[in-house]
Amino acid sequence: MFKPNYSFEKRQKEMAKKKKKEEKKQRKLEKQKRTDENVVGEEGQENLQED
Fold first, then answer.
1. Model pLDDT for residues 4-44, shown as the tens digit of each residue
2. What is the DSSP letter of 5?
3. How far apart are CA 23 and CA 16, in angstroms?
4. C-alpha pair distances (Å), 48 with each of 8, 16, 51
5. CA distance 36 to 40
6. Is the pTM of this model over 0.85?
7. How far is the C-alpha of 47 from the C-alpha of 45, rounded, in Å?
8. How far apart are the first and last CA of the chain?
9. Residues 3-14, buried b or exposed e (16+ Cβ, 10 A)?
10. 46 alpha-carbon distance from chain centroid
């Protein structure tokens, strides 16, 4: 019977967590970027309406 390699399993879990965290960070940055573009777009439209 083979002995389980816990260090390999631990490393795999850590890598999965790191990947998931990075993907979440990217989603947040994209969402923030889109909201920033919308805010800038709305400000530009307000300036055009005032003229």
1. 889 999 999 999 999 999 999 999 999 998 888 777 766 66
2. -
3. 11
4. 60, 48, 6
5. 6
6. no
7. 5
8. 81
9. eeeeeeeeeeee
10. 30
Q: Both tokens of residue 37? A: 């573009």
- In the structure encoding, which two tokens stand for residue 10, read together? 């631990």
Q: Which two tokens stand for residue 26?
A: 């990217």
How far from 46 is each of 33, 38, 41, 43, 50, CA to CA, in Å?
20, 12, 9, 5, 6
The residue whose two tokens read 């390699």 is 5
Model confidence at 47, in pLDDT bands (50, 70, 90)? low
Give residue-wise pLDDT tens across range 8-18. Answer: 999 999 999 99
Q: Which two tokens stand for residue 41?
A: 């777009």
Which tokens go with 29?
């940055």
